[in-house]
Design a protein that fits this description.
By secondary structure, the chain is α+β, with helices and mostly antiparallel strands. It contains five helices and 15 strands.
């Protein structure tokens, strides 16, 4: 009887192995979803591995899962590993990262890594996010059986994750101006400071014109070439009073009267917004930049400044004036 049972089990194992050779050698899955949000709002959720905890399906399966991040958490080379009683052990590394377009990953949970990609196709506020998963089971029949059981879970994980990313991206604030995160270089400049009420726009404009007029006269008399467009820093601002520093960039070694000491901005990471129109309507840019910084959980690191790209003396149509607004932020 025991011999028959053993022979029966052996026959079953052989049958399963034989069937395994005929099962699919690869797991190849593609899922897409339409999202009413710009590409940047989607890309940042995938390119930053810390954000995966808010939408990744596998995190919902194991409350005791331990996650360990690598030295990088965002962009190419970013990685994390997991270990949990329900999901086992594994790791993931970002191998491709094209801003607002693509994130590619290697996922290791067996001997051979799986490949996953998230592609974004966008037109303004409308985007399509496509997730692809590819795993080669090879010729190992056991791996092919495992792949057969894994595939439905991977499909479920994509459905869950894409829906979550959609809800997160569509809930983000919408901005009517172009906002970017950049790193700027230090700028050498001379300046004049003044404190006044911000309530009278005409008075503010007149004061700015007066200060820039003096600065332009100084560099012209010294025969110094300006090293960029003029700008104003605002070290403090309330509804009643503001400190205003009007500045013109100059070479660091420029020879100027001692009264006009050459200073230098610190440079570093900034959030930049572009305003088109009269200076009287620029407050809306600051409001949107404040919302962006709060949404991104960034920390302001100094006084904001405005760079006046358009010369009002040359372009009289205020609708064509371009002003760049910068907020310095911490890394």
């Amino acid at each position: 009887m025991i011999k028959k049972i053993l022979l029966g089990l052996l026959a079953l194992v052989v049958l399963l192995v034989v069937i395994g050779f005929f099962l699919p050698g690869k797991i190849d899955i593609t899922k897409s979803i339409s999202i009413q949000a710009p590409a940047a709002s989607i890309f940042e959720e995938i390119n930053n591995l810390e954000k995966w905890q808010h939408w990744d399906y596998w995190n919902t399966l194991d409350d005791n899962m331990q996650v360990t991040y690598g030295d990088k958490k965002e962009g190419i080379g970013a990685s994390y590993s997991w270990d949990g009683p329900n999901v086992g052990k594994g790791s993931m590394t970002i191998t491709q990262s094209e801003p607002d377009k693509l994130v590619g990953l290697d996922i290791n949970f067996t001997e051979s890594p799986a490949k996953a990609t998230y592609k974004i196709e966008s037109s303004g506020e409308n985007s399509t996010l496509t997730a692809d998963f590819l795993y080669d089971n090879g010729l190992n029949p056991i791996a092919r059986w495992i792949g057969t059981f894994i595939k439905p879970e991977v499909e479920k994980s994509f459905d869950y994750g894409l829906d979550k990313i959609k809800s997160i991206a569509e809930a983000k604030p919408k901005f009517s101006i172009a906002i970017t995160e950049e790193t700027v270089s230090p700028v050498s400049y001379i300046s004049i400071s003044h404190t006044m009420s911000p309530k009278d726009h005409e008075a503010v404009s007149a004061q700015i014109s007066k200060m820039f007029g003096e600065l332009y006269g100084v560099v012209a008399k010294a025969k110094v070439q300006m090293a960029g467009p003029p700008f104003c820093l605002y070290p403090s601002y309330t509804e009643e009073s503001m400190d205003m520093v009007c500045a013109v960039p100059v070479p660091a070694n420029a020879k100027l009267p001692a009264k006009y000491k050459i200073q230098q901005t610190s440079g570093g990471p900034v959030v930049k917004g572009i305003h088109k129109g009269s200076y009287h309507t620029i407050n809306g840019v600051y409001t949107q930049l404040d919302q962006y910084i709060a949404n991104k959980k960034l920390e302001i690191n100094g006084a904001p400044w405005e760079v006046y790209i358009t010369d009002p003396e040359e372009v009289k149509d205020t609708t064509q004036w371009i002003t760049e607004v910068y907020y310095p932020v911490k890394h």
